[in-house]
Amino acid sequence: MTGFRKRGMLIAAGTIAVGAGIGAAALGAGSAHAQASGTIAITSVSANSNGEPQFPQVTVSITCPANDRFIVDANTIQSATSEGSTATALCTGNAQTVTVNTEFPSSSPSYSGDGAGPVSVGATLQFIPAGTNFGTSSDTYIGTTANLTFP
């Protein structure tokens, strides 16, 4: 009887170890993108290359998993809100500098743009695995804000 108990305990222990190993392997395989990470940091805000303050440019530094696709949205707030976004681009897996051109909505009253002084800036990085569509549960969003001086 003692031999049977020892054998039963060894079988049970082996089953638990194998089950735990399978569970760990399944967890690792099933969450490959769920653990993907990215970063976004606002580095500057300025007038566009033509010096037009009604079209502020927000420059950010991003990282996201290599071969994922991304979009960056940005806005500035200084008496009115400007907004803009980039076209879809490919993540390199390394730090990338991205410039977002924003503009003030046509529905706002006539506004000359951001003036010299403090401005609140926000930016969001949205990235997705290669071969998937934006707007699904696999999208990852990372946002940040900064208080900067324009220009």
The CATH architecture of the largest domain is Sandwich
As an assembly, this protein is single chain
Number of helices: 1
CATH class of the largest domain: Mainly Beta
Q: Proportion of β residues? A: 35-45%
> Shape, please?
elongated
CATH topology of the largest domain: Immunoglobulin-like
Q: Give the overall pLDDT as a whole number.
A: 78
Total strands: 8
**Helix/strand/pairing category:** alpha+beta
Using only C-alpha atoms, the radius of gyration works out to 25 Å
Low-pLDDT parts are: 4-35
The main pleated sheet reads as: 5 strands, antiparallel
Percent of residues in helices: 10-25%
| Overall number of domains | 2
Order of helix and strand elements from N to C terminus: HEEEEEEEE
Measured distance between first and last alpha carbons = 85 Å
Word description of this protein:
The chain has 151 residues and is α+β, with helices and mostly antiparallel strands. It folds into two domains: 1-30; 39-150, Immunoglobulin-like (Sandwich). The chain contains one helix and eight strands, in the order H-E-E-E-E-E-E-E-E. The strands form two sheets. Strands 3, 4, 5, 7 and 8 form a five-stranded antiparallel sheet that branches. A three-stranded antiparallel sheet has the order 1-2-6, with no helix packed on it. The longest helix is centred in the first third of the chain and has 29 residues, at 2-30. The chain is elongated and about 40 Å long. Residues 4-35 have low confidence and may be disordered.
